C-alpha cells in the first residue's frame, strides 16, 4: 500500500482490526455454545423428561386432561425457571466478554490515533476514553434492532421456552411417549441434532453473540472518538465491499461519507443481527488542527476484488458489479430499479434507516 491520507490510514487499520474482532466473536460464540450445550440444554431436557415422566406414570390418557393438570403446569414453570437462570448466566458471561473487548478497542483506537498523527502527535493531546462510560454503554446502549443486551437475552430465553412448549403440546397431541417428545426438543443423533428446538436456540445465540461483539467493539472506538472531539470532526459508517453487505448498511455508508455523522449522535453499527460494519472517526485535516502540513495522497481500501481507492463507497463498488451480483445484494426488483437509475441505496431506506418494501419503494419512485 502507498502512503495514505490520515483518514485512509485509519480506515485501513480498522479493516485489518475487524478480522481480529471477528476472531474474538468466534471465541465468544464457542464459549456461549459450550455453556448452553453443557448445562442449560441438558437441564431443560431433564425438566421435560422428568415432568412428563411423572405425568405418564399416573396414566392420564386425554391430552386435554394432561395439559390442564398440575403436573404439566409445574413442568412448564420448571422449564421457564431453568431457562431464565441459564440465560441469565449467559448474559453475565457475554457482558463480561463485551466489556473486556470494548476496553481493548478503546485502547486500540487511541493507539491508532496516535500512530496516524505520527510526526505531528506532539502538537495534539490525546485523551483516553472514560472507562466507566465504556462499561455502562456496553450494556445500556441500544444496538441492532433497537434493544439492549438484557432484552435480547430475555427474548432468547422466551423463544426457547415457547418452542419447547409447542413441541410438548404437538407431541402429546400425536400420542407420542416421553422420549419421542424429548427428541423433538433435543433433536436426533441421526440428523446431527439439527432437527430439534435447541438447534434453533444455538443459531439464535450465535447471532446475538456476533452482533453484541460488534456492538462492544464500536462502543469502545466511539468513546475514544468522543474523548478526542477536538481532533475528530465526525463519524463514518464503514461497510465491507462484498456481496454480504446489505442495502441498509451500504446506504448508511454512502450518507455518512458525504456528510459524516456527529460524534455524539447518528446511526451506529450494528444495524441488524450479524452486522459486520464499523463506525470510524474522521479526523480534522492537519490545517484544521492548526498544523502547517499537507495531507498525503489518497490510499486504498480492501474489497472482495482486491484494493480499490480509499474513497470508494459501497454504492460505487456495487455499481461496478454485474446485474447478478447486484441482485444478490438488492433482490431482483430493487436491483432493476438501481440499474435503471430509479433508486439509489439511500432511496431504499426510510428515515429510521429501515429498508422499504418493494411496493413502498415503487410508490416512492413512481
Q: Averaged pLDDT, please?
A: 89
Q: Describe the main β-sheet briefly.
A: 2 strands, antiparallel
Helix percent reads 55-70%
Radius of gyration: 25 Å
Strand order of the largest sheet: 1-2
Q: Which structural category fits the helices and strands?
A: mainly alpha
Q: What is the overall silhouette?
A: globular
Strand content: under 5%
Tell me what the structure shows.
The chain has 366 residues and is mostly helical. The protein has a domain at 6-234 and 263-278. Helices cover 61% and strands 5% of the residues. The protein has 12 helices and 4 strands, in the order αααααααβαβββαααα. The protein has helices spanning 6-57, 63-68, 70-117, 131-140, 149-173, 178-186, 197-227, 247-258, 314-319, 323-330, 332-339, 358-365; strands spanning 232-238, 278-283, 300-301, 308-309. The strands form 2 sheets. Strands 1-2 form a two-stranded antiparallel ribbon. A two-stranded antiparallel ribbon has the order 3-4. The radius of gyration is 25 Å and the shape is globular. It starts with 5 loop residues before the first helix and ends with a helix. The model has no long low-confidence stretch (mean pLDDT 89).
Write out key terms for the chains shown.
366 residues, mainly alpha, 12 helices, single chain, two-stranded antiparallel ribbon
Task: Give a nutshell description of this structure.
This protein is mainly alpha-helical.
Helix and strand topology:
Blueprint: H1 6-57, H2 63-68, H3 70-117, H4 131-140, H5 149-173, H6 178-186, H7 197-227, E1 232-238, H8 247-258, E2 278-283, E3 300-301, E4 308-309, H9 314-319, H10 323-330, H11 332-339, H12 358-365
Antiparallel strand pairs: 1-2, 3-4
Amino acid at each position: 500500500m502507498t502512503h495514505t491520507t490520515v483518514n485512509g490510514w485509519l480506515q485501513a487499520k480498522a479493516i485489518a482490526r475487524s478480522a481480529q474482532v471477528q476472531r474474538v466473536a468466534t471465541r465468544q460464540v464457542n464459549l456461549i455454545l459450550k455453556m448452553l450445550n453443557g448445562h442449560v440444554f441438558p437441564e431443560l431436557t431433564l425438566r421435560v423428561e422428568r415432568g412428563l415422566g411423572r405425568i405418564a406414570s399416573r396414566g392420564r390418557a386425554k391430552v386435554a386432561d394432561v395439559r390442564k393438570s398440575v403436573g404439566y403446569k409445574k413442568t412448564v414453570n420448571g422449564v421457564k425457571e431453568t431457562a431464565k437462570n441459564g440465560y441469565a448466566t449467559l448474559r453475565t458471561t457475554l457482558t463480561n466478554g463485551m466489556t473486556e473487548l470494548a476496553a481493548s478497542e478503546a485502547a486500540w483506537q487511541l493507539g491508532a490515533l496516535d500512530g496516524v498523527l505520527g510526526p505531528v502527535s506532539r502538537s495534539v493531546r490525546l485523551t483516553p476514553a472514560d472507562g466507566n462510560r465504556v462499561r455502562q454503554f456496553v450494556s445500556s446502549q441500544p444496538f441492532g434492532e433497537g434493544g439492549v443486551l438484557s432484552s435480547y437475552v430475555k427474548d432468547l430465553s422466551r423463544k426457547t421456552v415457547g418452542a419447547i412448549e409447542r413441541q410438548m403440546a404437538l407431541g402429546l397431541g400425536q400420542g407420542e411417549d416421553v422420549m419421542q417428545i424429548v427428541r423433538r426438543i433435543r433433536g436426533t443423533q441421526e440428523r446431527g441434532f439439527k432437527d430439534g428446538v435447541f438447534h434453533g436456540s444455538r443459531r439464535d445465540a450465535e447471532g446475538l453473540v456476533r452482533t453484541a461483539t460488534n456492538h462492544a467493539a464500536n462502543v469502545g472506538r466511539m468513546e475514544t472518538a468522543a474523548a478526542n472531539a477536538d481532533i475528530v470532526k465526525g463519524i463514518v459508517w464503514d461497510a465491507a465491499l462484498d456481496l454480504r453487505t446489505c442495502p441498509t448498511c451500504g446506504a448508511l455508508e454512502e450518507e455518512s461519507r458525504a456528510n459524516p455523522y456527529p460524534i455524539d449522535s447518528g446511526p451506529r453499527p450494528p444495524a441488524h443481527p450479524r452486522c459486520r460494519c464499523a463506525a470510524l472517526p474522521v479526523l480534522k485535516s492537519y490545517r484544521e488542527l492548526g498544523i502547517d502540513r499537507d495531507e498525503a495522497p489518497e490510499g486504498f481500501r480492501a474489497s472482495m476484488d482486491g484494493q480499490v481507492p480509499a474513497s470508494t463507497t459501497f454504492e460505487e463498488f456495487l455499481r461496478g458489479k454485474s446485474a447478478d451480483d447486484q441482485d444478490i445484494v438488492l433482490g431482483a426488483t430493487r436491483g432493476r430499479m438501481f440499474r435503471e437509475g430509479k433508486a439509489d441505496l439511500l432511496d431504499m431506506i426510510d428515515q429510521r434507516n429501515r429498508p422499504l418494501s418493494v411496493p413502498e419503494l415503487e410508490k416512492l419512485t413512481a
